[in-house]
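Cross-posting from the chemistry board since nobody answered there.

I work mostly on the small-molecule side, so proteins are not my area. We synthesized NAP and want a rough idea of how it might sit in this target. Sequence and SMILES are below. Is it possible to get a predicted 3D structure of the two together?
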Amino acid sequence: MTILVTGSSGHLGANLVRRLLKDNHSVRVLLREESNNSAVDGLEVEKVYGDLRDLSSVVAAVKGCDRIYHTAAKISTIYGDANFQQELYDCNVLGTRNILRAALETGVKRVVVTSSSAALGYKPGEPSNENTPFYPFNPTLPYEFTKVFVEHEALKAFADGLDVVIVQSWAIIGPNDFKPSRMGQILLDFANGKLPAYTTGGRDWVATKDLVNAHILAMEKGRSGQTYTISSEYLTLPEMMVIFEKVTGRKRPMLCLPIGLMASIGKVLDMIISPIAPNAPRYITAGGLKLLATNQTADCSKAKTELGYQPTSIEQAVIEAYQDFVHRGLIKNPKGVISLNPTPSQPTTTLVGSK
Ligand SMILES: NC(=O)c1ccc[n+]([C@@H]2O[C@H](COP(=O)([O-])OP(=O)(O)OC[C@H]3O[C@@H](n4cnc5c(N)ncnc54)[C@H](OP(=O)(O)O)[C@@H]3O)[C@@H](O)[C@H]2O)c1
């Protein structure tokens, strides 16, 4: 049985591919030739080159596969200009349509599509679950809209007869983060003593290991046409800093700016930078801070009941992320958790010098 994974150069995909290989599956990956694909270097996978926006390359990638994990997406917390928004829509929404059409045409048995908590609604003080309706008239990032439409594409394909399950991810933390992700970059900066400040606010986070497990459980046990929301635990940013201190052996920055103030700074930066460089990726964005400011929590009881999903801890995910960064030489003079295992994908945990 050949399994296609899209997004394997990304954070989730890199971890999912390693787990599938460990489980002795034959894995094909869809890569873009011009991208940094170091996440799959040295792995025994079949590489197929193409782009989700190009239907013919998608059909070629899908042909002969029994199952697909469609994790790929363009992620962004900026508004960007019209071209940027078109690219988001084309990669995420039309790209998903292409994968699902190709799966239907070539007789793929089951597809798991990765969505996001961004596609969920939010009621202050209440955990969000699969039934919390997305409300489109709140300020919403273009990326968030695309993830809602990704789910619509999946449900349209289900109506057309495709066996498809949706997994909604919350903010991801863990190893094999090659780009790296926003939280991965914050951990790197923290560990290298370069994080100038942090903020308050919080949300649910998901460990890569848990998210990978959930994808596999969804493939094995998920009900077709259903959505499962997946997180590990809720943490505020100050609580995350406590974990970072413990894991890295470094002190957190002295400066903690309240989330309201940070959100205002994010808005001002957006106003200054957007007219000059609307598509430039940046650390502090009003959209990213909005996600923390809502303190949105997750209710994963459907995944626990139907899939047998069991979340682990974010602290362990931070340890694994840190060990992997240390192994890849990205942290100078590491002081905290040292792994004795030279394989970044399967770290062992040895706490050195932490309280
Ligand atoms: N990261 C989070 O905290 C988070 C939270 C909620 C939901 N999610 C969802 O989880 C999934 C995985 O996220 P991630 O963090 O692993 O993302 P990531 O690290 O940014 O990786 C994105 C992947 O998608 C691929 N991709 C994007 N556009 C493509 C296109 N047009 N054709 C082919 N491949 C394309 C990228 O390939 P290139 O290397 O070629 O660019 C990369 O492999 C996504 O569906 C995302 O929406 C993530």
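Reply from a structural biologist on the board:
Welcome over. Reading the output above for you: Confidence is low (pLDDT under 50) at residues 339-355. The longest strand covers residues 110-116. Happy to explain the token format if needed.
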